[in-house]
Amino acid sequence: MIETRGVSKRYGDVLVVDDVSLSIPRGGFTSIIGPNGAGKSTLLSMISRLTPMSAGSVQVDGMDVTRTPGNVLARRLSILRQDNQTSLRLTVRDLVAFGRFPHSGGRLTAEDLRHVDEAMDYLRLGDYRDRPIDELSGGQRQRAYVAMVMCQDTEYVLLDEPLNNIDMRFAVDMMQLLRRAADEKGKTVVVVLHDINFASCYSDHIIAMRQGRPAYQGSPQEIIRDEVLRDLYEMDIQVHEVNGQRVCTYYR
Amino acid sequence: MSHSLSSSPGAPDRGVLWLFLLLALVVVLGLCSLNVGASRMNLLNVLTADPDDRISKILFVSRLPRTIALILAGAALAVAGAILQMMARNRLVDTSTTGPMAAAALGMLVLAIVLPQGLPLWGRFLVVSAFAAGGILLFLGVLQRMPLRSALIVPLVGLVMAGVVHAASGLIAHHFDLSQSLRAWNSGDFSAILRGRYELLWVAAGLTVAAMVLADRFTVIGMGRDFATNIGVNYGLLMAAGVALVAMIVGSVVVTAGVIPFIGLVAPNLVRLIAGDNLRRAVPLMALLGAALLLAADLLGRLLIHPYEVPSSNLLSIIGCVIFLAVLLQGRAKWS
Lengths: 252, 336
Description:
The complex is a heterodimer. By secondary structure, chain A is of the alpha/beta class. Chain A is built from ten helices and 13 strands. In chain A, a hairpin with a 2-residue loop joins strand 1 and strand 2 (14-24). The termini of chain A are far apart. By secondary structure, chain B is mainly α. Chain B has a single domain (16-34, 51-328), classed as ABC transporter involved in vitamin B12 uptake, BtuC, CATH 1.10.3470. Chain B is built from 15 helices and one strand, in the order βααααααααααααααα. The longest helix of chain B is centred in the N-terminal third of the chain and has 35 residues, at 54-88. Strand 7 (107-109) of chain A pairs antiparallel with strand 1 of chain B, so a sheet runs across the interface. Chain B: It is found in: Cell membrane. Chain B: The chain crosses the membrane at residues 16-38, 68-88, 125-143, 150-176, 196-215, 227-247, 253-271, 283-305, 311-329.
């Protein structure tokens, strides 16, 4: 279980995340949605100890993220942020293999190699394994980073906008893969999403944030509703039920 | 069963091939270095000669120490450049182009002014390394505060930092009438290396080995703070280790031979073209290429106006510039 208590982040006079106390249960697929500037990414990066908190505390399975040794936490929780720019010439395989670092410290065992191959197959990167990541398309590179995080094989997998830069087919692939990781491997997947339809169709639990606070929380049935979304995004959004999926239209 | 992180089909074979090629190059250049000098000497004669005669004295007191010094310094400087590039997250920087070397020379100058009676070798090494560390921290600190970090701005900032330190040293040296000494430290060479005057470089050799052990971690550092933190690498601790490592390599080289430019820029960038950026795979190649470059520059310096010498740093500035421009132009599509 991930628990935040009174977590805030302040940049100068701007309160980006405002006294957030919430808990994300173990297992399942949780999406964090909300308008730009709602503090979704900042909250995710504070939960994963990448950004220091201005106030409050975060516990992952009872471990305080700011006090737990980095490599212990790295075997329990992985995080992928949005911008993964690098000028380093590493092969896809080298990158994915870094996911095993918390487990083996760079000396790969047969078990590690199995994880590396499995993660690359999972994300259909087999053909690119020896290609340098700086020569890949944006979508291929994004998949390589997700493969690395999968390879890290942690109980909690946190991703900030994993659908950035990838086309519809790979976006669906990616969501199905994350859903499977939750269903088949019992992972706890927490994803910041901009596309509310993906959140609607794949989540068990949705946290809707606005102005640095969780405004609504609940199942997709409870959150993906006209009145909730209109209030959250301050625009006209219609929810339709199509083939058992709740889909939003808001394009005109 | 254990495999190296870098083992990927195809790549290691080529890496191993290059390793042997560069090793052979270092051996050949090393043998030439033993043979060339003001006094005539042939290695074969040494083997048959009596250990006390003049020829074997030249070999063991002068030529062998000089050759070993060149190999150790060249390898260490290449590795220091690679680590600095990872820490700055930019491949176009080196200890000689961003301030650390200039700061080390300033350290030599300050020592000469404050303690004209001299310090023991270890004391000089520590003080000069501390100055080098200051140079690295200044550069990285300025980078951290820069909002815009385009690939070409970073080396320019480095050049400015190096220029500022260099100019300050020049002013101070002029005031204390030490311009001549400063110029000597700034154009490093190995002509004064004798047995008993190069052993500090074994420290640099130890640091080179340490860098090989930590190679994976320095690659991770090059991927940035968030990447490192996610996989449990202590970013702050590793940055501190990197600063210490690079500073002590620079310190030992500058105390022993003076400022040696460009090796840390050229060797890593050439190796990158053949082996990529995974330091576990690249660092041994960088070290060998650094050694070969310095050996070649020193040899050329000894041959050009034989029996006199051109400082290897002068030649390296020229060779380094040419190679570096070639690398830069070859990769220009990537940086644009």
